[in-house]
């Protein structure tokens, strides 16, 4: 097992990884920008190295500085967390070229799944159901028109290199296709330096359901069940649940069997998430994320496992040591993403946190790097805390979430806490009756927070 791991990230996820390492007796190296010198992940780590100025491209994306930090501290492995360099195949290659272990999949698999067209082609060959659409990249607008006419409008033009909901445009009918084609390509070129796009049928009332998988280097692949991440705004997740209120165990097991068999064939290693749209009792694959997800805690709560420890064990070459039949799902878990944003306009709200109180009690978990007196810097993602509850069933989990939200205090900055408080009171949410479009309508109809 590794003696020392460098955590190439910040905020709550850097802390999350540090905690797993501590429990395994592994020493940690934090890296940080000059804006994060007093951040909690730096305070708690065994060692820390400043890797550059505030802008992420000069610090958390600065590969040379991160590799130097690993070398001078004698770290044997790097955990990338999520975001930043976590899905950068070149980074994974360079980590390994420096004789260090990359805690994640092989660079070949990161590259394959990072290109959504290649990912869909791989899944098609493995028998995983897909959203209908173009078989590959679209070369011309005429091609887009022809496929859209065949599969019928509405359709979505999506960036092959897409992420974070960018480079995605809907065309409701023929009159909108040219504009969608143009905007998706321009956005994709600007955000990802690549204007390859493809086309998918736009599903009008799907849920977003994803499957958590884990594979070791000995041919064992298991899944840890599904998460329902349908509550989204601008294709960004806000609240997640495990399991999905819409799925039964038979459907989950069937999907899990197809997916794990496919990944075994592929020789996949490490943690991964396959994202699906689910409508009319049909699953359709949209993309695979080759890293730990923000919402992984809801899975940990219902499975009683630590996904970060599993990632580390697998990266060290250890076998999983259990099979699918050993994995049990207990109760229900819900996570609220609390961001430093205005709960009505979603404008960023960085600044000094004057008071901070995290809720507690049975079945309550808070993953956050906040503390009273901490200044949330303006340079990074606005996620400041994740509140996770676990209870024997969904109704009790909602009651627990309502109680925990009422105890939580983050003063000095605006956060999305009031929005979550409204969501838990909503009868449709309570009934589990929602699709990916529900939250946008909810935000529009709640007059004041
Ligand atoms: P990204 O990588 O940018 O997050 P995804 O392909 O994962 O993009 O899609 C993000 C979200 O966009 C999905 O969770 C879903 O809400 C919506 N979406 C994506 N594809 C479709 C589709 N074909 N029909 C309807 N909604 C879609």
UniProtKB/TrEMBL annotation:
Domain Biotin carboxylation residue range list: 1-444
Catalyzed reactions: N(6)-biotinyl-L-lysyl-[protein] + hydrogencarbonate + ATP = N(6)-carboxybiotinyl-L-lysyl-[protein] + ADP + phosphate + H(+)
GO molecular function, one term: metal ion binding
Designated name of the protein: Biotin carboxylase
Gene Ontology biological process terms in this record: fatty acid biosynthetic process
Keyword Nucleus: no
Pfam families membership: Biotin_carb_C (PF02785), Biotin_carb_N (PF00289), CPSase_L_D2 (PF02786)
Pathway: Lipid metabolism; malonyl-CoA biosynthesis; malonyl-CoA from acetyl-CoA: step 1/1
InterPro entries, sorted: ACC_Biotin_Carboxylase, Acetyl_CoA_COase_biotin_COase, ATP-grasp, BC-like_N, Biotin_carboxylation_dom, Biotin_COase_C, CPAse_ATP-bd, PreATP-grasp_dom_sf
Protein function: This protein is a component of the acetyl coenzyme A carboxylase complex; first, biotin carboxylase catalyzes the carboxylation of the carrier protein and then the transcarboxylase transfers the carboxyl group to form malonyl-CoA.
Subunit note: Acetyl-CoA carboxylase is a heterohexamer of biotin carboxyl carrier protein, biotin carboxylase and the two subunits of carboxyl transferase in a 2:2 complex.
